[in-house]
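F.,

This is the one I mentioned.
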């Protein structure tokens, strides 16, 4: 009797573990993340409505893995309130870099929270056209980060595509 209970518990644990692993590895196909997923070194590429996977179609449910380019940011007042604000402004203005949209929101939010206005010009990742915001602090999609998503600036900018 004890052996049957142990077998059931072990089976339930294994099923739960396999389900969690499969769910985690499916996240890139939902457009949610690709860190530490089994697709990490497979060459899988995906965009809002397409990927290069042969069997599993993908739809992005968010813009977490989109990158903006050609970013120009000016803060007002021009003198940064702190060294951190100056660092964040410089991160936004890094040349020949692609900046993750969620990281962009987190940085703009921090600069706005320090009492600055942010004039932002960037290339929209969907349309490919230049977009502009006179005060990005007033534009929710540019200044409201998702609090459930951790953002690390050292991982969220990439070299520009050739």
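My design for it:
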């Amino acid at each position: 009797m004890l052996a049957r209970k142990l077998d059931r518990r072990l089976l339930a644990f294994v099923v739960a573990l396999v389900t969690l692993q499969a769910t985690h590895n499916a996240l890139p196909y939902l457009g949610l993340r690709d860190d530490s997923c089994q697709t990490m070194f497979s060459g899988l590429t995906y965009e809002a409505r397409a990927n290069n996977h042969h069997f599993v179609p993908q739809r992005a449910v968010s813009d977490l893995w989109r990158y903006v380019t050609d970013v120009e940011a000016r803060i007002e007042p021009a003198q940064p309130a702190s060294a951190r604000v100056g660092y964040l402004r410089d991160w936004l203005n890094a040349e020949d870099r692609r900046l993750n949209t969620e990281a962009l929101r987190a940085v703009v939010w921090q600069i706005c929270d320090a009492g600055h206005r942010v004039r932002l010009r960037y290339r929209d990742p969907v349309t490919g056209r230049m977009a502009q915001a006179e005060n990005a602090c007033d534009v929710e999609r540019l200044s409201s980060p998702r609090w459930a998503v951790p953002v690390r600036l050292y991982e969220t900018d990439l070299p520009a595509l050739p």
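The first helix runs from residue 2 to 30.

Talk soon.
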